[in-house]
Amino acid sequence: MKQLEDKHICRYCMGCGAEELDTFIPKMNCSNFVPAYSDWQERYYKALKEK
Question: Could you tell me where the DSSP H helices lie in the chain?
C-alpha cells in the first residue's frame, strides 16, 4: 500500500479500499467518498493550506 499524502482525499476515506492496489492513483476528488473521520473536512483543508 502506498503512503498517501495529506492533500489527497483518499487519506480521509474508507470507501473503496483501492489504495491497496499497486496501480492506485490518489485522487483530489471522488464520487465514492465515505468519511473515515468526523472532522475530515478540517483536516483536509488544513493540509491543503499547508502545501
Answer: 40-50
**3 in any annotated domain:** no
Output the pLDDT for position 2. 61
Q: Which pTM does this prediction carry?
A: 0.70
* Among 46, 31, 40, CA closest to 11: 40
What lies within 8 Å, CB to CB, of 18 at 6+ separation is 10, 24
Q: Which of 20, 47, 17 is nearest to 30 (CA)?
A: 17
User: Structurally, how many domains does the chain consist of?
Assistant: 1
Structural domain including 37 reads 9-50
Residue 40 pLDDT level (bands cut at 50, 70, 90): very high
Q: In this structure, which amino acid lies at residue 47?
A: A
